Amino acid sequence: MKRIIHILSVLTFLLAAPALAGTSSDKDQKLTTGNTGPVTLRENIVVSTSYIRLGDLFTNVPLAKEKTAIAYSPKPGRRASFDARWLYRVARAYGLQWRPLSANLSTMVTRDSIVIDKDEIQDAVTSAMQQYDLPENARIELSNRNLRIHVSTEIMPEVRVDDITFNRHSNRFAAIVAIGEKDMNATQRIRVTGQVLEMLNIPTLSRNVPKGEVISENDISWVQMRADRTQQDIILDAATLIGMSPKRTLRADRPIRARDIQEPVLVPKGSLVTIILKKPGLTLTSRGRAMENGSDGETIRVTNTKTSRTIDAVVIGSSMVTVLPAGSNIPQLAYNQ
Question: 3-state DSSP call for residue 13?
Fold first, then answer.
């Protein structure tokens, strides 16, 4: 059935050709060689209108016949192939001196188009969804992420939403999107579906920060993440990051978990420290070696380098610790001054 329809379509164009009017056979037709040279076939062409014209397929077509419509163009963005037999019949029907050199010869016709991509459709749906008072951090996501609509280059297309429904329980929507010339009937209508996503602004790092380095305000950048895909221990407040130090190298633009950072290590494990004991009217110091890493305010174990005695001390600065004024410690510290 499709073959019969195709044959009838071709015959309709050929029978309507002015070149056939008043002729009895191909033999009696006067063939033309063109305006400036021999007639040749264009094997790959792009058309922008609804019709394929004689001058689109062949070069050096007489001006009087150049704009003659001979077939319908493919739909915008689509392609159609025409074989040697059909091309030869068209050439003879319009009196062109051309014949295919091979039965395998063909020409490919591509219809030019304006592409309406997913982002444009998503923007239109987002505007239409404002009637539902969505939160500011909401984002619309279409189910078909590869959606692309091709429309004719003969119009200035406008994307609008004719109808939309939203289910607050599932956060899903369905919309009828119309595409066409402004203030005119739509040339295309499509149904799109998708969901409304709650988004979170997540502080991340603008560069890779190695272990032990202190994170500054200039190191902070922001990314958006879906709330339903964000782990519970992800840091959401930039203030929590600033002044902290990574336990391992942290990569840029990645969410940071609370267990990935710590207070900066002021006293590295194995380093020499100054042990300070303060009491009204008395300050004693001694040298020691840290038995573990220590951040500001942390209590760590320190070994006196002369007596080998291990005590608990509080980190108060870089390579500095202090001990509480206990009577048993004072003589030991004084002895080592």
Answer: helix
The pLDDT, as a whole number, for residue 11 is: 45
pLDDT at 286: 92
Residue-range definition of the domain harbouring residue 91: 2-112
Q: Are 247 and 261 in contact (CB under 8 A)?
A: yes
CATH number reported for the structural domain that contains residue 37 in this entry: 3.10.129
State whether 260 and 282 are in the same domain: no
CA distance 190 to 186: 10
The C-alpha angle 36, 42, 46, rounded to 5 degrees, equals 120
CA angle 60, 49, 114 (to 5 degrees): 125
What whole-number distance in Å separates Cα of residue 234 and Cα of residue 256?
A: 6
Do 104 and 62 share a structural domain? yes
Positions in the chain short of pLDDT 50 = 1-8, 10-30, 328-337
Residue 33: per-residue pLDDT:
56
**From CA 124, how far away is CA 112, in angstroms rounded?**
24
Buried b (16+ CB within 10 A) or exposed e, 82-112: bebebbbebbbbbbbebeeeeeebbbebbbe
Number of domains in the chain: 4
* 3-state helix/strand/coil string of 198-239: EEEEEEEECCCECCCCCCCHHHEEEEEEEHHHCCCCECCCHH
pLDDT of residue 326: 56
Question: Which tokens in the block code for residue 148?
Answer: 């692309």
177 shares its domain with 190:
yes
Token pair 């956060």 is found at 171
